[in-house]
Amino acid sequence: MSETLTSSSQSAPQSAEEAIEGLPSGFGTGLAGQIAFGIALAFALFQLWSAAYGTLPSQVVRAMHVGFLLLLGFSLFANLIATSMAGKVWFWSLGILGFLTGIYNWVFYEDLLFRSGFLTHVDLAVGCVMVVLVFEAARRLMGLPLTIIAGIFLAYCFFGQYLPSPLSHRGYDFELIVEHFAFGTEGIYGTPIYVSAAYIFIFVVFAAFLERAGMLNLFNDFALGLVGTWKGGPAQVCILSSALMGTISGSGVANVVASGQFTIPLMKRFGFRSAFAGGVEATSSMGGQIMPPVMGAVAFIMAETLNVPYAEVVKAALIPAFLYFAVCFWMVYLEAGKAGLKGLSKAELPNPWAAVKEHWPLVLPLGALVYLLFAGFTPIFAGTMGLALVVVLILGTPLAALIGPLAFRIVFWLVLGLASAAFLKFGVNVLAIVIIALVIACALFKGGRETIAICRDSLAEGAKNALPVGIACAIVGIVIGTLTLTGIASTFIGAVIDIGRDNLFLSLILTMITCLVLGMGIPTIPNYIITSSLAGPALLELGVPLLVSHMFVFYFGIMADLTPPVALAAFAAAPMAKTSGLKISLQATKLATAGFVVPFMAVYTPALMLQDAGPMAAAWGYPVEVIYVVFKACFGIALWGMAVVGFLFGRLSIIERLIAFVAGVAVVVALPWTDEVGFALGFALIGFHWWKTRTASTAVPGQ
């Protein structure tokens, strides 16, 4: 392996701290930094305890989750942003006030239940403070667009009765609005914050532990060795490593931060333009949100909203995830061919299987997680147990290193593995006892104490990484609460149904545009929640399977993070690519263009998401239909990629690109004879283009 690639790999960050708008990395310096670190650690331990034992009422867990989010968020503002002592005191005061709202809900939980509909002035004051603090935290963490959208929805509750029909509602009292948003399960403490507290937090911490354990290095080395020799090698490495990162992180921005520092400079040194290198990283990293088994936070919210097992959401995402990354690979292959870029030399690349052999234990917790998810266990149980197994693995490593003979080390790992696996029969306490015993053993020697510190830091880092997701889930509760309180969603649904009654395609276009427009200012999670609440029921009325309609919205929510003018993933890649986020966004949109075809195909042929069978399944069987639909999608993607890039075996003329585009559309549109026309045009074009480029190359001397 060359010195360049070795040093790049070694300089790859050991952990992927989520890039949070307006917040630098770390927890601050001095005593205040230590306190903020302690808050993050306490936050993580509270969430893990409530997930493992579930003894607290759900409403209390939600309230404490929001309280911890506010305390940690404002304490970080105080330590990392505020420059004056007055500013620091102000932010710390807001954080403590926010945490006390959670304590209030815990202490007076039963009293608040009995006072439902008849809240006291103190209750209303606490509710108002909590709502205001959530808005302020969202403004500072997520930016103005999401805060303004939530503010418009909240204002609609107060003043909607003065609007003309059909937007008007009957009007609501101040007390009712405060109770609905600040104490019920339809507002800030609604389904999104429940999912954040129950599922998302666990998986964010799970990813932080795996990254600290060296999973990122494994992914980078494996990707380098496996696809580094392909045409456009470094970019292909970026795509594969981002896909692998997506299996544990489920966060596009975190993927950019983690792998971009290694892959973007490598792509630039290889000859790719800065904007294109950043675009490849942003596009492939955003696909992590639909990459099983962990996927993104939206997948957990979707499962909870639709009341379906998480495994069903994973199953529906399998083929779209494959196609998403196939688009990335294909577009990079074409761009590299157009620019005349080859692959990396095999001699300078690591052996991918040697990397797996060296780090294979890290794969075991991920395998256990997949097994538990598909064996019917809840995501909260699977995530908690997967995290516990990672901790066991990390804590067991320094102890195993003390054991001399290999046979004894094997016995040690077998005993530890059997003891850990016993949780399936004897419950969570077994794993807790194993972890406590390992911590005590590690505390007795220097290397073990360093390992304990790694676990401690991973817990705190995971809590900080959960901040933007948690705050987004809290503020978007305002939107959901408005929809349930006022019923305004039915007006939008009726409009979409009226359009779709005559033309389903127009309804889909309207839904796509809504996702992309919302994505100009808000992340994928609130984008999905808002759009699915509005468009999901409408598409269901038009005959689109429920899971497919939600995946349609989810997919375009991801695309929205790539499209200008506000593309979060692109701007996260900008500092590493050393070019503007807007240029990266334009390249990312171009790279993802062929992927726009996948959601539309899934609506017309749900077998693409392993959902409802079509006419072909009745005649030939369901597997045949799935294989055919996947082949058709791949062919359509290939044609659209040719049309966008203008290259296959050589440069395509304008006429050839137009024919490729038309053939791709024909393959996608599920109308009589369109498949046949698309395949005929596509294969004829590819054959003609191959003949033309071959003839041209033989006509040139030395070719």
Question: Could you please describe the fold and organization of this structure?
Answer:
This protein has helices spanning 3-11, 30-53, 58-80, 85-107, 109-114, 121-142, 144-159, 174-182, 191-212, 215-227, 233-246, 252-270, 274-286, 297-306, 310-339, 352-359, 363-374, 379-401, 406-421, 423-426, 428-442, 446-486, 489-502, 504-518, 524-541, 546-560, 568-577, 581-592, 597-604, 615-620, 622-645, 654-668, 674-699. It is mainly α. It starts with a helix and ends with a helix. Residues 1-17 have low confidence and may be disordered.
Please name the defining characteristics of this protein.
mainly alpha; disordered N terminus; 703 residues
> Largest beta sheet, briefly?
none
Q: Label the overall shape.
A: globular
Q: Which residues form runs of ≥5 with pLDDT under 50?
A: 1-17
**Residue-averaged pLDDT, rounded?**
81
Separation, N- and C-terminal Cα atoms = 32 Å
Main structural class: mainly alpha
Total helical segments: 33
Radius of gyration: 26 Å
Give the proportion of residues in helices. over 70%
Task: Compose a concise summary of this entry.
This protein is mainly α. 76% of the residues lie in helices and 0% in strands.
Per-chain topology:
Layout: H1 3-11, H2 30-53, H3 58-80, H4 85-107, H5 109-114, H6 121-142, H7 144-159, H8 174-182, H9 191-212, H10 215-227, H11 233-246, H12 252-270, H13 274-286, H14 297-306, H15 310-339, H16 352-359, H17 363-374, H18 379-401, H19 406-421, H20 423-426, H21 428-442, H22 446-486, H23 489-502, H24 504-518, H25 524-541, H26 546-560, H27 568-577, H28 581-592, H29 597-604, H30 615-620, H31 622-645, H32 654-668, H33 674-699
Helix pairs in contact: 2-3, 2-9, 2-22, 3-4, 3-6, 3-9, 3-22, 4-6, 6-7, 6-8, 6-22, 7-22, 9-14, 9-18, 9-22, 10-11, 10-16, 11-12, 11-13, 11-15, 12-13, 12-27, 13-27, 13-28, 14-15, 15-31, 17-18, 18-19, 18-21, 18-22, 22-25, 23-24, 23-25, 24-25, 24-26, 25-26, 26-29, 27-28, 31-32, 31-33, ...
